[in-house]
């Protein structure tokens, strides 16, 4: 019912990232049927011996080799599709599916590891040839740090890196190594998914390593929930990213008393900051090179009132001492 030429054009586009759509993948039996159709015969026989019957397709063959167009892996969605049988069966099916993607896709560009990856995919036979082209990575910090070490041996050209920090009780050494080896990192996003009031920030070394990418990074998005991680590290690091086009900082990271000569972002186009004084914001705008398109500044008035109040208290204290 559809023009064949149109179909041949559209299908590869839709299947570049088939996990991006807002649908309930868990109930899509046709996806599981397509996976089952593409599995090796010995795997199918093994599943049959375990009493697992995969959904079948109506035709002897598929119109397209759909998975050959795929350029992405979303671990959580894939695992939701493969949710049949025992945990052992699911684990085996997941491994075969990842193997299938590695064999068929010409190059892998996007990997969303979520929080549930259990397979060391960098050890798969064709992993090196496919993972070295990875340019987007999204992950959660609850993943075993050894997994990041494994990726760091292959994936060194990630351009977009999104990290969701699940818990402060995390070993960050693997993530630090993965950041260190990147040669073309353009976009970095760090998002805390918990609230903490500790005086010490456990992931300070992550941002110290990120500082070494100041010459290539042009998009920095940080959403912190560590209330006391204010002046020590991140504030100083932000001042060194002079090539930023996008700067978003949510959380109690105060940008205030730095010399205007330090607040220079000549390519800056988008500026979102939670805590910044009016004087610091003025310096950034003045030194932006006229490229700013969007500015959102929160709590500037509150901060200036607080600073004025503190100065007043100091002045009154000084007068009392003198008297």
Automatic annotation (TrEMBL):
TM stretches of this protein: 301-322
Lineage: Eukaryota, Fungi, Fungi incertae sedis, Mucoromycota, Glomeromycotina
Domain of life of the source: Eukaryota
Protein name (database record): F-box domain-containing protein
Keyword set, alphabetical order: Membrane, Transmembrane, Transmembrane helix
């Amino acid at each position: 019912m559809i023009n064949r030429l149109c179909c041949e054009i559209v299908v590869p586009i839709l299947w570049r990232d088939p996990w991006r759509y807002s649908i309930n993948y868990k109930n899509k039996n046709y996806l599981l049927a397509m996976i089952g159709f593409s599995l090796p015969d010995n795997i199918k026989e093994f599943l049959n011996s375990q009493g697992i019957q995969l959904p079948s397709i109506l035709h002897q063959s598929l119109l397209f080799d759909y998975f050959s167009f795929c350029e992405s892996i979303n671990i959580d969605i894939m695992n939701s599709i493969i949710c049949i049988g025992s945990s052992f069966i699911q684990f085996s099916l997941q491994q075969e599916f990842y193997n299938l993607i590695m064999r068929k896709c010409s190059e892998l560009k996007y990997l969303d590891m979520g929080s549930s990856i259990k397979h060391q995919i960098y050890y798969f036979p064709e992993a090196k040839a496919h993972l070295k082209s990875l340019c987007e990575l999204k992950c959660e910090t609850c993943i075993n740090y050894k997994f990041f070490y494994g990726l760091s041996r292959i994936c060194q050209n990630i351009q977009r890196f999104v990290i969701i920090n699940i818990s402060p009780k995390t070993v960050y050494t693997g993530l630090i190594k993965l950041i260190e080896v990147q040669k073309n990192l353009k976009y970095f996003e760090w998002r805390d998914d918990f609230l903490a009031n500790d005086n010490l920030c456990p992931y300070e070394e992550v941002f110290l390593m990120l500082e070494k990418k100041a010459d290539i990074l042009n998009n920095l998005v940080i959403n912190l929930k560590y209330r006391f991680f204010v002046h020590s590290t991140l504030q100083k690091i932000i001042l060194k990213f002079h090539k930023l086009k996008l700067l978003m900082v949510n959380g109690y990271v105060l940008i205030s008393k730095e010399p205007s000569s330090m607040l220079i972002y000549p390519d800056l186009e988008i500026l979102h900051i939670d805590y910044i004084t009016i004087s610091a914001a003025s310096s950034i705008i003045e030194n932006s090179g006229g490229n700013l398109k969007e500015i959102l500044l929160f709590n500037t008035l509150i901060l200036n009132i607080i600073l004025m109040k503190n100065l007043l208290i100091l002045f009154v204290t000084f007068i009392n001492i003198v008297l």
